[in-house]
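HUMAN:
Could you generate one sequence with tokenized structure?
ASSISTANT:
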Amino acid sequence: MTYFHKLTANDTMMKSLLAFAIPVAILTGCATPMYSQEGLPAPVQVPAGHAVVLESVGRGQITYECRARKDNTSFDWVLVGPEAKLTDRQGKQIGRYYGPPATWESADGSKVTGAQVAVTPAAAGSIPLQLVKTNPATGTGAMQGVTFIQRVTTKGGVAPSSSCAAATSGKKENVSYQADYIFYKAR
């Protein structure tokens, strides 16, 4: 019995299709987006005409500082800024997230800043889901052309529950958090 056969027109077409599809699959990471827009609350959905180009997991710390309110009658924990590593699905570091201003920087040196468009509540004890509209990127690379970033699947990161009063004014605390950051570009 032989396992070889004569190539037909369909076999040749299939080889041509695979020759195109395999490099595309490698470049796109063989991944479909983890998040469907239909599964997210409307305020944090990305407008039509944009596609997912990068998915990452951010793990790090959010720094809060105990500060007096503007009316000086009480004190609150105020967000100072984040510091997180951005990794791909396999855990390889691909960048970082820090601020202020909120900055997403790729390992290739390109980076974007952005302004919050919307937030919606997440699970208790977790920072809210967020939609950010980005400013034009600096540098050439992965962040070039990114138009929106979603923060989803958040865990932790809320302000400390410890006392914040005149006696602790100026005290800073770091809180661990994790979130998925989904990057979009216009189609």
